[in-house]
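Handout, section 4.2: multi-component inputs.
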Amino acid sequence: MVTGHGPIERLVRLWLPVGFFLVLALFPFYWMAITSLKPNAELYNRRIMPLVVHNPTLKHYIDLLTETSFLVWTWNTMLVAVVSTAISLVLGVMLAYPLARMRFAGAGLIAMTVAAVYLVPQPLLFIPLADLINRLDLGNTLTAVILTYPTMLVPFCAWLLLGYFKTVPMELEEAARIDGASRLQTMRRIFLPLCTPGFISAGIFAFTLSQNEFLYALIFLTQSAVRTVPVGVIAELIRGDVFYWGQLMAGALLGSIPVAIIYSFFVEHYVAGLTSGSVKG
Amino acid sequence: MSVRSEPLVGSARPARRAASLGVWLDRQSVFSWLMMTPPLLFLAALVGYPFCYGILLSLQDRPVAHFGTFVGLKNFMTDFKDAIFWRVTLNTFVYTAIATVLKMVGGLALALAMNQQFPMKNLVRALMLLPFIVPTVLSTVAWMWILDPAFSVFNWFLIALGVPKPGPSWLGNPLLAMGSIIVINTWRGLPFYGITLLAGLQTVPPELYEAATIDGAGGWQRFRYVTLPLLQPIILIVTLFSVIFTFADFQLVYVLTHGGPQNATQLFATYAFDIAMGAGQLGLGASVALTMLPALALLIVALTIYLRRG
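Output:
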């Protein structure tokens, strides 16, 4: 712990650096917000001081919601994120529980494989996957992304949960076993209810990653009705060389809000997951 | 697996059978493998198979919607004779190296600044993480407008300060464009470093600092000989993570510059995308993507081994 004395030292050691990082982190969001509220006359006038809104308007939001399929994209994004997070949590538990609790030949190899698969970045897989999705005739269906997002999320959830599971004491499970419960019963009735914080951490991460995903959605979803927010915003609010900046910023802000809200409720879990996932592994 | 451990005395009573099945299922190895089979099959089908299929594709001449013909290493030869490919290689290494150093140094500074007592610390920490959690594409759109050639807010300030109009072309000048994507990648990744390192800093026992102070260590020496060695494992893990995903970055560059101007910001992932999805050459695109594999494989193996030990 650094012991800061005196207002000057505290200013230099604490407020200047923290203030700098805070302004750096938040300026783009501020810029997003005020741009989305500026009328076009103000937006495209280089003489007006740009840092504040002089005549705020909701026109860009209204246009975004009435003239584009933004609400459909939002619905798609939510649906895909929720379903792929749920799938990933279930499959992740099925991998993590045996690895955390059972002794069997090959456990080490499986654990390493899961970690390695988590680290395989999408650009290594998207071309063969695009062809595979085409052959399965799943192009332009939400199934295409619901199936492929868990390829990133399952190893991730498994890895995070594995770290969490190892911190849960084993006594309750041992007691249940002595009382004659099967392994499946022990896991479902005794163990899993103890792990809610772990599921919340993994769930938020998986949800955020799904909302953030772009490459697969860009390739698999080329029709407006099935697009997710990031792809919809990029593909439909930029038409050729024409940028609808007001709508773009309104869309970027509205698209960020669901993640930000969920995150603000669970920020402690998020930080716990962030640090345990990479620190303890 | 057999059921020979069961003392079945030739009786076919259903209850006994059920019981022996139950015992068999309760074996650690049987239970584990049954439990892990669905997720492992899933990953084999959608990661393992595409990965192998990608290697096969890279050995084929395979226009989209046509059958492929095997051409051996011809695609890789084409890559190695392609000047843009080498430009892309250079770009990717420069981008990864500079952004990683910036994130590491900046993240450490952020963690040290945050590792002090001050009011509303949790709120500040939550706000600091926003760049990392907001979907990259959406925050990149905001950056695109901040760096717009005609209406950049930076240029408005620069012009107000006397820089001749129209001010720097952030995304139009090759060097500035590379600088811009590096800065934005750093902006997004820095909180991940900062908050993870902060958590690491908080595990350093205060007695160590006290002992060092008693031994006459100054602020820099405490940082150099107490903080850094204790943070080293976390720094290593975070850095390996970040290098892997920066090296294979796609979203930011695709949205901001599309690899331009004149391929000045083209990375492996965006170039592979252009060839495979833009030009419809799946085989050649797969070969470009696969040239990332040796470097990535080294990093992945290193990190996997390190995580297992830790």
